[in-house]
Amino acid sequence: MRSIALPATAVTGALLPQNLERLRRPLALAVIQKGRVATQMPGFADKLPDEALRAVADYIYSPPPKLPEWGMAEIEGSRVVHNDAAQLPARPVFKADPLNIFVVVETGDHHVTILDGDRFERLARFPSRFALHGGPKFSPDGRFVYFASRDGWVSKYDIWNLKMIAEVRAGINTRNLAASSDGRFIMVGNYLPHTLVALNAHDLRPIRVLAVKDDKGRTSRVSAVYDARPRKSFVAALKDIKEVWELTYDEHAPPVYQGLVHDFRLGEGVPVKGPFPPRRIVLDDYLDDFFFIPDYSALVGAARDGVKGQVVNLNVRRRIATVDLPGLPHLGSGISWSYQGRTVLATPNLREAVVSVIDLKDWKIIRQIPTLGPGFFMRSHEKTPYAWVDAFNSKHRDTMQLIDKRTLEVAHRITPEPGKTAAHVEFSRDGRYALVSIWDMDGALVVYDSRTLKEVKRIPMKRPSGKYNVHNKITLSAGTSH
Fold it and tell me: Does the pLDDT of residue 186 top 50, yes or no?
């Protein structure tokens, strides 16, 4: 197994309220008092009185009078090149099937594991930037994987050579990234600043920073950005503006996509030329996250505090239907399959103990499947009859439920380790094995035979969260998120 080292900044982030959502104040105060093990953060309990320590904690949670800026110059200045991919072998240095590799994010100690999906052995483990967020994305051939961290760092890693290629800080608080289907571009969605950042996928050089604003100058955080492969475009959901943006990278797109675009920094309606012109779709409600229907002509989305899902047709550029969805559907984790001759979308719910199954032809709810508790992740594979869903937000968080895709009924329950959270299933390339994460510092990746449901192997890991199979991701498997 090989490993690499990243600079000390790999585990630090800007001390801004937007970057501290995952760090509660009592824990922050404890870190200020006692320091943090295996970092450069010392403790100050023996140097400052309690009142001063509390004042420091209050200060870092106070918003600055002016939002910090992070533009082209800052992005380019942050870029680090570790290796030249052109000088590395254009073939894997290992004997494992390169398309049956799993990339596993271990959030407990901020590391990534590269796992052989046949033998279930580590090929490499290396430190990541702080708090990777959103699923990593792959190049079309599966050789490179791209990560985005909560504090804005984008990293490019060569799976075939087990080496980090380059890194760049594309924002201060980043939501996620998308990789273009042609392998040329990376699009990064930021919470702070309110921007979309286009990068050259080859070396992570910045191409354009797009200020996310409406025609009245109101800015917005980007809550999600995904690649729409058949459309050769990126689609972004905006958290604070009732719009969806589509940004083409198709060189042969009609002029309406490639022509003059509005750069609102130059004033309302001032046309300027630039790559990735945003095609704006104005909505009646906010749209936080979404799921593409299989042909990518439309998306199904919902706002965090909304009561209905929205169906947005990307061709006619408007909402064409609403869906009655309870609670808070996690559409970014939705999956689809064929049920009784029709394509359905199934989505877990973050607030209610139910999985919603929607007919993608008439947008009606076919079934609300009761579960043990509100769930976060749902996964399946074309070669298994079951969809696996967790009960992440409930007292039954240690148990996975398997829904039979043929009957829409819960068929099995699996508890990998009583009392410890079980979540995020991913399948091997052939669908034979299902991998489940035990979200604990003394956690593990548990491998199941997807047919017999028997445990095959248990690999100790530090709070493994997501795991991503190269083949399933680059082929857009219906059982996993895209």
Answer: yes
